[in-house]
Write a structure and sequence with these properties.
A hairpin with a 2-residue loop joins strand 2 and strand 3. The protein contains no helices and nine strands. The chain is mostly beta strands and about 70 residues long. The protein is about 0% helix and about 60% strand. The protein has a domain of about 50 residues.
């Protein structure tokens, strides 16, 4: 199975992470304290931080990994 980091551009600022051939999942928290698990569509560099593009409420949004989502 495919596992590892695969870069989407030459500069290395966008990538995907595969584990056993599937994209990894991350748990986010909403303002009400509910835990929401989302698949990371792609990751990106944001200065010294890492962010991700996820699908939430039918839209693709860019978030940092410690973002608290709206309810």
């Amino acid at each position: 199975m495919l596992s590892g980091t695969y870069y989407l551009n030459n500069s290395g600022s966008r990538w995907i992470i595969l584990k056993n051939g599937k994209k990894i999942k991350h748990t986010f928290e909403t303002k009400s304290g509910k835990k929401v698990i989302r698949t990371l569509i792609e990751c990106f560099a944001f200065g010294n931080f890492g962010g991700a593009v996820i699908s939430y409420k039918g839209k693709k949004i860019s978030v940092l990994m410690d973002t608290i989502l709206e309810d």
